[in-house]
Amino acid sequence: MSKYQQIKQTAYEANMQLPKLGLVLFTFGNVSLADHKEQVFAIKPSGVPYELLTPDDMVIVDFDGNTVEGKMRPSSDTKTHAVLYKHWPKIGSVVHTHSTYATAWAQAQRDVPIFGTTHADHLTVDVPCAPPMSDEMIKGNYEYETGFQILNCFKERGLSYEEVEMILVGNHAPFTWGKDAHKAVYNAAVLEEVSRMAYLTETINPQAPRLKDALIRKHFERKHGPDSYYGQ
Ligand SMILES: O=C(CO)[C@@H](O)[C@@H](O)COP(=O)(O)O
């Protein structure tokens, strides 16, 4: 019995939520779950269809991206997850999907504008889109560089990873995170829904205005408590 049985089981259950929520097709995407005490995380193996996945298939990886336990090759995005766990110690789980609308905004290299209260219930800023890889980065380790693209985007914009738990990576797709697997998967589903709404809003009215900051604050604080607003 693996000493990591518990996080393998929980990570497996979280991965199985992605096809159930319509966030992935075939082998797209992956969920990981960290054990910060052990400085490891469990992640979906690469290229395994969800319907064939078992808890025992989950691969245990350290925060430098090295495999600690597992028969299969870890997800091709493993080093991106590792960079986030290593630099953002309060996240417990990371989700990567290729959900259609969020990925379309990432491919368009655009932030998802905050047009309505559905978005404002979850975050008070446009969903950030990190710039695509530079030629230099492409020559490097792509997955590590993706992780640093995310860290650098938050640093440049002065965003807190504990407040904004989602990002689009330009020309790639979304990453979300949270204190646990439930929250990280929930954020992935919310991101896809607000991305779909924003696309339809711009299609119906290309001049649609962003939500007023006062209303963003009202809606966010109604859900998250007074003084929880952190602005754009
Ligand atoms: O981002 C990508 C590919 O662009 C990956 O998430 C997707 O193909 C899933 O890869 P893995 O099966 O996790 O190695």
TrEMBL record:
EC number(s) stated in the UniProt entry for this protein: 5.1.3.4
Reaction catalysed by this enzyme: L-ribulose 5-phosphate = D-xylulose 5-phosphate
Cofactor(s) recorded in Swiss-Prot or TrEMBL: Zn(2+)
SUPFAM superfamilies assigned to the protein according to its UniProt record, in alphabetical order: AraD/HMP-PK domain-like
Highest taxon of the lineage: Bacteria
Gene3D superfamilies: Class II aldolase/adducin N-terminal domain (3.40.225.10)
Keyword tags: Metal-binding, Zinc
UniProt xrefs under InterPro entries: Aldolase_class_II_sugar_metab, Aldolase_II/adducin_N, Aldolase_II/adducin_N_sf
Uppermost EC category: isomerase
Location of the Class II aldolase/adducin N-terminal domain: 9-199
Xref: NCBIfam families: PRK08193.1 (NF006047)
Family affiliation: Belongs to the aldolase class II family. AraD/FucA subfamily.
Protein name, as recorded: L-ribulose-5-phosphate 4-epimerase
Organism: Chitinophaga horti
